[in-house]
Amino acid sequence: MATMKALVYTGPGTVEVLERPKPTIQEPTDAVVRLLHASICGTDLHILKGDVPSAKPGLVLGHEGVGIVEALGSAVRGVEVGSRVLISCMTSCGQCRYCQKGITAHCETGGWTLGNKIDGTQAEYVRVPHATLSLHSLPTSIPSRAAVAVSDAFPTGLECGVLSANVQPGCSVVIIGAGPVGMAALMTARLYTPALIVMVDLDETRLNTARSFGAHATVNSAAPDTLSQLMALTDGHGFDAVIEAVGIPATFALCQELAGIGGRIANVGVHGTKVDLHLEKLWDRNISIHMSLVNATTTPRLIRLVESGLLDIGSLVTHHFPCDEGSKAYETFQAASQHQALKVAIDF
């Protein structure tokens, strides 16, 4: 049996490079893709912490990647063997009740399967279910390694952040969390020409990066007067669009403080513990709160934006490692502030 190298979740906090069987076509709707690059997501770290019960030890991690189509099931359309493709973080059958509603994250036979319920992309090869809607051909002008950010970070930032927060021309936006998804939210928010975009984080290096990506202002949340600094930027009115991109109780609490009358809070972060909702303060302020998984329905649009030069994705992948150094890649991502890392890619 042919084998391949893969990054395998072997137990709490542990990732190992192991030999695994090379995947094969199992359904007519499958494709097998030879990976060029994969990347690590914050959700992978949640798996290592044991926060994702559906992800069992022995799983090949990863749901982001770019590669070359190696084999196709008989029902797959739109890509060919040899095509260079982006692998969507969400697989979609296109036919079930949720796909028909555009909520492909909850596809009855797909959704977040890769690196969660089935082996994922952090391997030399991956089997991609529902390949017709889950693979996207990449124009030659888009570099493969940079494109991994369009598997998940950019559609998440756009859909769960910018669109959910109803970012509009001339509005005010605050983004809590300057990680890869927060940065993607910043870059895609700029496409909607808000008058003010503010980034909040503990890491001064990331705040500097956010300014280089187009943030109008930044605030370090370690400051004792964080709230007053942020409110002063809106003349005390609060923000129209508030995007939470961390996933801890303190940041969601801050979002509730920052939403202005008629504002909209978009939760993007993955929350592992309960948070408090202060309805006693919000009930009469016409506040909306939206939370969702990414559906990745905007991926074709994002690819066109990158191809046209309107969205520069080249700066988000800051570190890359060969597959044999996969454990080091995880260590780097887990200590991202120490290494000044945003997206960490794995090369095959």
From TrEMBL:
Entry keyword annotation includes Transcription regulation: no
Keywords, sorted A to Z: Metal-binding, Oxidoreductase, Zinc
Q: Which InterPro entries match?
A: ADH-like_C (IPR013149), ADH-like_N (IPR013154), ADH_Zn_CS (IPR002328), ER (IPR020843), GroES-like_sf (IPR011032), NAD(P)-bd_dom_sf (IPR036291)
Recorded hits in PROSITE patterns, A to Z, give:
ADH_ZINC (PS00059)
**One matching Pfam family:** ADH_zinc_N
Q: Which CDD domains match?
A: FDH_like_ADH2
The protein's required cofactor(s) are namely: Zn(2+)
GO MF terms listed in the record are:
oxidoreductase activity; zinc ion binding
Does Zinc appear among the keywords? yes
Ranges of residues in domain Enoyl reductase (ER): 13-346
Family as reported in the entry's similarity comment = Belongs to the zinc-containing alcohol dehydrogenase family.
**Protein name (database record):** Enoyl reductase (ER) domain-containing protein
Q: Which organism is it from?
A: Penicillium malachiteum
